[in-house]
Amino acid sequence: STLLDGRILVPVIVEGRGLSLLLDTAGISTTVKWERVQDLGLAPQRTMRKLKGAAGTVLNSFVTGENFRIGDLPVASKPMYLETRPLFGADGTLSSPLSAGGAARPLSFS
Q1: CB-CB contact of 83 with 31 (8 Å)
Q2: What is the bridge-based pairing of β-strands 45-52 and 58-70?
Q3: How does pLDDT run across 29-69, given as a tens digit for each residue?
Q4: Cβ-based neighbours of 110, under 8 Å, separated by 6 or more
Q5: What is the dihedral of CA 70, 85, 42, 20, to 10 degrees?
Q6: Nearest Cα to 48, choosing from 61, 37, 29?
Q7: I need a surface site. Which of 4, 22, 76, 80 has the fewest CB within 10 A?
Q8: What is the model's pTM?
């Protein structure tokens, strides 16, 4: 779906639960909000390297979704940084498979 400001939400399934992630075409990593991590039953871990995100945020914790799907496309062991920004209307961000190499084949929005 598309938000009023033009940003694209992509429905994904993580550990059997539906999430709406903002498509981040320049992103290098997929993120998920802290609040959703408990819902997903995933255990946060600290990263060895901190990732500096948009607007000066620092991402230093992650979870791994063992059962991650974008539509019918399964993505094996998808690591996701824990999002610290308030993303209104979204549960996190989805990095582009073309920029991050996260999926087996490019997504088609046609």
Answers
A1: yes
A2: antiparallel
A3: 899 999 899 888 899 999 888 877 767 778 889 998 888 89
A4: none
A5: -30
A6: 61
A7: 4
A8: 0.79
